Amino acid sequence: MKGNWCWRESISLEFFSALSNETDQEALLALQNLITSPNNFLANNWTKTTSFCSWFGVTCSLKRPRVVALALPNLQLQGTISPSLANLSFLREPNLKNNLFHGGIPYGLGHLPRLRVIDIQNNQLKGNIPTSVFQHRRVQKISLAFNEFSGEMWKGPRYVPELKILSLRNNSLKGIIPPSVGNATKLMNFGLTGNRISGNLPNKFGNMSQLAFLSLIDNQLTGSIPAALFNISSLVGMSVSLNSLSGPLLLDEGNIVSNLETYSSNSRSYFNISSLKYIGFNLNNLSGRIPTTTGFHLPNLISLVLGGNQLEGEIPLFITNASNLKILDLAGNFLTGTIPTNLGNLHELQRLLLHSNQLTNEPTEHELRLFNSLVDCRMLRYLQVGSNPLNGVLPNSIGNVSSTIEILYIGDTHLNGLIPQRFLGKFVGVEDHIEGQVYATMDKKMYEHTIVHCSKDIEEVEWDFLDFGEKNLVASGYVDLICMLRIEADSTGGLDLSNFDLALA
């Protein structure tokens, strides 16, 4: 009797196993029927003549012939995602990223009990994201970035408790960030950049004790940043630029921890962090002053970008102690005072953008000593200090500024002085293409005697990047250099000297 029971149980298990195997196969074939692939390679590979566990992109369990992973990325697949995908009850990781799928996400996908990863980024999917996706108890990664999803984020009380990565950037999501997101206490990477999210940042963000990266750039967020967010010991990068967050720039407050490498916002920043690498608060409504205390120590800071705000006060001297700084952008604010004359300490500096402020020259100095210091910045590529009332004399040392200079903007500064020919010789490969003809070329073979070949009347030359303004340079004796006044966008460099009282040396 016992033997008969064991025999019947064995037959039953084999029957249900075969039925489950057939379910997986039929689910995959239903998916394939809605997909068009280049040269029909998927239809030719997924055939009933071979085991579905050997089909391209399919991974089965080692214990039983059940599909546990489906990897079909970067294949130019077109079509819709079949609801049959939800019948793969052992599926853990569907990866359909970087294809051309349209339509929506099957609602049943969020009900797969063993689901761990959903990666369908960079397709053409539309509609609402199924709420079942955000209710799953075991999913660790949801990546739906670079699609066309609309609607609002789910506002339910529970958010995927095991979720570590939530990437929804570059869609058309709207509404607010639901406070329940803060219940995803294991979340490490949260990306909503490039949507239409509005409202305030939830105070419950502070509950995400393992958060490392927070990216909310280019939305419609308002209000201030919750103070609790800066007590997260795991925070490495934060970027909320291009929003409407407001408040003073309180750079010397808070208790943010030393793990922070990137901080980008428009409410607070905490600079006294030895591991801090990237700070980007640009294009917001920041106000207040950058602290001038010299106690800050930023040995690892690489980029400080505060341009396009409403900051006031002076440029703090502690910035010149950031020996690894490559990008310094304070342009487009209301900064006053003088430009630090020891910026030459920043030997790694590649971009210095201080234009469009109210910066002045040292009252007791005749020459603009900034250029004397910048001679030591041998990697400098962009130098823009124009649209400031500098009111000084351009020193001869400008001719010794790095040969790597690509863009120089010192227009609208009320400077005067001489421009060494050897400096103009740094701008190489200049050609003027108008209606398919080359009208002016510059030969950079000799620094001291830059040779310019010109075959066009001065009055007809269009002025672009190399702009001397409306000054009369004829008296200087270097009329031929005006041939350089037009530079195409694909040239290697530009020079703006408009509103600059000068002669050519």
TrEMBL record:
Query: What UniProt keywords are attached to this protein's entry?
Result: Glycoprotein, Leucine-rich repeat, Membrane, Repeat, Signal, Transmembrane, Transmembrane helix
GO cellular component terms, A-Z: membrane
Instruction: Output the InterPro entries linked to this UniProt entry.
Output: Leu-rich_rpt, Leu-rich_rpt_typical-subtyp, LRR_dom_sf, LRR_N_plant-typ, PGIP
- The UniProt entry lists the main location of this chain as other
- Please, which domain of life does this record's source organism belong to? Eukaryota
PANTHER family given in the database record: OS06G0587000 PROTEIN, POLYGALACTURONASE INHIBITOR 1
- UniProt record similarity statement: Belongs to the polygalacturonase-inhibiting protein family.
What is the recorded name of this protein? Leucine-rich repeat-containing N-terminal plant-type domain-containing protein
